[in-house]
Amino acid sequence: MEIHKPAHVVLLSSPGLGHLIPFIELGNRFALHHNLKVTVIAVTSETSAAETQLIKSATKPNLINIIQLPSQDISHLIKPDAAVVTRLCVMMREAKPAIRTSLSNMTPQPSVFIVDIFGTESLPIAKDFNLLNYVFVASHAWFLSLVIYTPVLDKQIEGQYVEQQEELKIPGCRSVRPEEVVDPMLDRNDMQYEEYLGVGNGIPKSDGVLINTWEELQHSDLQALRDEDLLGGILNKIPVYGIGPIARQPVSETSQETELVLQWLDKQPSESVIYVSFGSGGTMSFEQMTELAWALELSEQRFIWVVRAPTEVAADAAFLSTGFTSNSDDNNEVVANYLPEGFLSRTHNVGILVLEWAPQEAILRHPSIGGFLSHCGWNSTIESLTNGVPMIAWPLYAEQRMNATLLAEEMGVAVRPKVLPLKKVVDREEIASMVREIMVVDQNAKGNPIRERVKEIKNSAEKALLEGGSSRVAMSEVLLTAKDHCRACKRKNRR
Ligand code: UDP
Predict the structure, then answer these.
(1) Looking at its record, which EC class is this enzyme (predicted)?
(2) What is the dihedral of CA 454, 455, 457, 460, to 10 degrees?
């Protein structure tokens, strides 16, 4: 019996597949588990065909409605080389009139509005419509702590964060090393730092925060966010809910390319293949790509590698523009141009390359996968943890350096290069040795400790989502609050 039932939930996601995917999955969860009407307002970037394609496939099961708002031309508002966070915040700001129009045209009138961290400037619009409003953090609790605490650090610390001698202390949470700060903190003079401070100041203005984590995974960080003597005071004591893991679910229709990858995986031994991918936007230099290719060969492990053309510009070069391309023979020839000579023929029995975009969720779920060399985007991380797959943590951008620390040092489910890949090329011997560390099970030892640990986390994730589990209970609390809010609004309207 569904008793906690607000009428209609609206979610607002910012551009980028790493944002849109968890919002669609959260929407699906509201619709499937709680039988609610759900609308996702998706602000999308003009250049990303992938976003449009994802929206098309996400509406097929007819669980949720999606309103796609193509982004406005913002070229007159930003410099041509503006960083990702600046672009995101400006796109979301410019979308505000269209968001207002969308909300006012909805039937039935929504009662809950959930925005992502780049959408907090739309919270006042929701207040005009009397909606209960939440922020959904599609990342983890330690990251949220840093975001909301940065306005305090901004007053305390002089000079660049990356040049500090001491770690950045956050009350009740693990300190952040200067070299692992999030991208917008790398340069305080860049416009994106100002925008990021705005994000930190915007989140506490909501009625509550939902985070893609769960109690058992990050209990002490969640408690710090609730404790008014620690970070709860900064958050204005609004409720903080761990509702994760929100992970990508299998799609009903699969493409021919997906079938080919899965058929290849079917022929490989259990947990014998390492999956190599850098998310929706990760790119690397030609030199680094060469070392990675040699390392995969040297490691003598089976692999699936999602390859993108190398670039010397920012590591998040493709974040707002990823497009799906097909794996035709022509494309294979193009790829061959930037891989070591003979790589394709030498490895064709042990590995496959997928161009640009792979069916990651289906790959990680496959029993033949035994490891994931990942850029540590939070969605990829969640997908790896929930499938019990250990990782090589290879952070590239955004909050991924923090994620890598969390995975390697706190959870013990990943190994990582000795130096941050951003600073220096990681050489083939080091990469090959990391690959062997997570893939090879020593017959004399009692299994592989990283593999054991990640399986424990997988189990705890499953428990959190069961009836009575921490995330299930948190979700019910959100809906109960929403129901009370609806009732109160109705009473007010009757008066
Ligand atoms: N993804 C995918 N195929 C790819 C690359 C990425 O399906 O080839 C999906 C992946 O499963 C995840 C999302 O895109 O759900 C990437 O989000 P993440 O937070 O890991 O990284 P971001 O792209 O935001 O840096």
Answers:
(1) transferase
(2) 180
